[in-house]
Amino acid sequence: MLDTTRTPWTGHVYTHDPGAASFGMEAADALGVAAERVFKTLIVEIDGSIVVVVIPVAHRLDLGAAARAVGGKRAVLADPAVAERRTGYVVGGISPLGQKHAHRTVVDASADALATVFISGGRRGFEIELAPADLLRLTAGTTAALTAD
């Protein structure tokens, strides 16, 4: 997807520790980048529809903000099995790109202030660095304030 759309990107590989408490913080530490630049992909059910939410790994999702971002009322994190089935990726390696099914995507507004962000490359131990504008273009995503802290 990235190469066929001629999107500039850089791949970063690191050795994944299966015992890591947080896959996202593990990536930030292993790559030596600020946690504010590494984003995690969460699968959320909002009023019964699947929505992809992308937020910095050091923050928690505000479910109410996620619901409001798409005009919804009730949001819950999707069951991990549902997330894996709908995206085609394993939890801890879910990428907002190249998912099995297309889903509405919302990226935390903090990405707008960054030159590049890191997102999962579809497996644990592989991160993709790209411009936030390219992430939004490739996912047909929007931005909103999504974090609780």
Short description:
This protein has about 150 residues and is of the alpha/beta class. Helices cover about 20% and strands about 30% of the residues.
How would you describe the overall organization of this protein?
By secondary structure, the protein is of the alpha/beta class. The protein has a single domain (10-144), classed as YbaK/aminoacyl-tRNA synthetase-associated domain (YbaK protein). Helix content is 21%, strand content 29%. It has four helices and eight strands; from the N terminus they run βαββαβαβββαβ. The protein has helices at 23-31, 63-69, 80-87, 132-139; strands at 10-13, 39-46, 49-56, 75-77, 104-108, 117-123, 126-130, 142-144. It has a five-stranded mixed sheet with strand order 4-2-3-5-8. The longest helix has 9 residues, at 23-31. The protein starts with 9 loop residues before the first strand and ends in a 5-residue tail after the last strand.
